[in-house]
Design brief:
It contains 8 helices and 8 strands. The chain has 229 residues and is of the alpha/beta class. The chain has an 8-stranded parallel sheet. Strand 3, helix 3 and strand 4 form a beta-alpha-beta unit. Helix 2 runs parallel beside helix 3 and helix 5 packs parallel to helix 6. The longest helix has 15 residues. The radius of gyration is 16 Å and the shape is globular. Bound molecules: D-xylitol-5-phosphate. The site of D-xylitol-5-phosphate (DX5) has 20 residues, from strand 8 and helix 7.
């Protein structure tokens, strides 16, 4: 589908810094702060050295917000639990290009489950790794840290790859998402390179003005920097 207007800047909080004992309240707080969607960092202790959210945890949080959920699957077997994450209320599943042997088939499986598919690239993986699956996805995620933990330093060296992905999807409605070290200090670089969906964790939860101030500062800085034709 051809895009007729500029991509919308969206803020997608990572739930990793949230208070897991109060996930329902945290969902409502993120919605009230003006976030556009929620990103669940799903980690299996194999693809990355950390373990986080199973489908039941996400399902428990589902009724506490009307915001769309996406699951960022940092797992070695995304195809095994894909159906469970869709049942839990995730309308988009993001699969890492490095996590499966059959990326095309796995993305088609996600679509067959009634969700939309996204594809993610670790820092070392070239943009060309996804050039033959763009017809199956509505989002390409360029990691700006090595996945596994929040609070890491932003990798500015990823900005040329963000720009390359933006060129690869130009004319389509595919969104370009970035994740890792995104903050008011780093967001202008990735937005100027063409990223329109911004995942942020620590920068939202540690902002001195609170969640709403963090969301509006990130959005305003990105809108200012995003390239116009
Ligand atoms: C890391 C995750 C990120 C991370 C972002 O593997 O995919 O979503 O939680 O956290 P910050 O914004 O603190 O880097």
């Amino acid at each position: 589908m051809a895009r007729t207007s500029l991509p919308r800047i969206e803020i997608a909080p990572s739930v990793l810094p949230a208070d897991f004992a109060r996930l329902g309240d945290e969902m409502a707080a993120l919605e009230a702060a003006g976030c556009d969607r929620i990103q669940w960092d799903v980690m299996d202790g194999q693809f990355v050295p950390n373990i986080t959210f199973g489908p039941d945890v996400i399902a428990a949080a589902r009724s506490h917000t009307s915001l769309p959920f996406e699951a960022h699957l940092m797992t070695l077997t995304p195809e095994v639990l894909a159906g469970r994450y869709v049942e839990a209320g995730c309308s988009r599943l993001i699969v890492h290009a490095e996590s499966v042997t059959h990326l095309h088939g796995t993305l088609a499986l996600v679509q067959s489950l009634g969700a939309t598919a996204g594809v993610a690239l670790n820092p070392a993986t070239p943009a060309l790794a996804v050039s033959h699956v763009l017809d199956l996805v509505d989002l390409v995620l360029v990691m700006t840290v090595n996945p596994g933990f929040g609070g890491q330093d932003y990798l500015a060296a990823m900005e040329p790859k963000v720009a390359e992905v933006r060129r690869m999807v130009s004319g389509t409605t595919i969104d370009v998402e970035v994740d890792g070290g995104i903050s008011p200090a780093t967001v202008a670089g990735v937005a100027a390179a063409g990223a329109n969906i911004l995942v942020a964790g620590s920068a939202l939860y540690r902002h001195p003005g609170g969640l709403a101030a963090a969301v509006s500062e990130l959005r305003a800085t990105a809108e200012e920097a995003f390239p116009r034709p």
